[in-house]
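Hi, here's the filled form for the chain we discussed.

Project: internal
Contact: R.S.
Residues: 344
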Amino acid sequence: MSETYDLDERAQLLLKQLITMYTHDAQPVGSKNLAQLSGLDVSSATIRNIMSKLEHLGLVDSPHTSAGRIPTEAGYRFFIDSLLEVNDIDKQARRQITNGFGADKTSSSLIKSASDILSNITHLTGVVSLTHSSTTEVRHIEFMRLSEKRILVILVVNQDEVHNKVIQVDRDYSDAELKQATQTLSRYLIGQDFHDARRQILREMSELKSSVNSMMESVLKAMDDVCDDNDELLTSGESNLLEYEELSDISKLRDIFNVFNDKKDLLHLLDGCTAADGVEIFIGSESGYSVLSDCSVVGAPYQINGKVVGVLGVIGPTRIAYEQVIPVVDVTAKLLSSALNTQK
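And the returned structure, exactly as it came back:
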């Protein structure tokens, strides 16, 4: 929550109006424009005095190149916690989200759709994470001999995610040996979380004394690649950030895009939203990462069977239209959870 500030109704109204104006065009706001648009029957001198107080409190700042003022991180935080009136999501946006979560989609497709939906509606960068605690239940495993030393592994995980992986093995295996490997691994894997079953298999592998042990090691490695998919963080619409002047510096953009590519820091940041009751917002330095000092992250957790399995949200400049973005993130998280929970 923001700090407590001794602001009267006029000061709060002017701060809110200043942030609204700055959100629109990223230009410092002068007292004259504030006087005209605020609706207050006060002089420009009175408004300048109030602005001076807001600046003294650290809620607004004066860029060296302009007599106008811009909101600070503290100003945005006070605005979000105390002054923000969140809009209802409009019918078109809700319809776009609902249509994006079609009943014919797999779990992975639904999650991928979420980042695209967020990006398209908000014109920011959409992000979706899968937490490390999410389970990967193995439903079916099958081996098919392609050629000498090459085997196709067919794996079905969770409800309907089918993965095919070709593995290279150390020798040729007969159909009987492949059948034995299927039966052995199925006994451990089917209906179990892959990571739990994998640990048990490795513990007991030496005791199996099986002729297909070396092949199963190759299979487990291939399944590691599938079940520990690198797409644990999905992003969409990175190029949308080019539209914002404050982020258009090439070196700044390069650093931000490196965060998207590296994923580790962003995943850690999104993990901070997993316990949130609704939408969580990190403004500038609140993220803990200097590269995101000019950005805000708005995130919300989504669930399967009441358990949080990931976080979705958007990344944009600190001057995003929070009253519009927050309900989009909130509704998307709820509808994604619903779509994932109603899959057959």
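Let me know if anything looks off before we file it.
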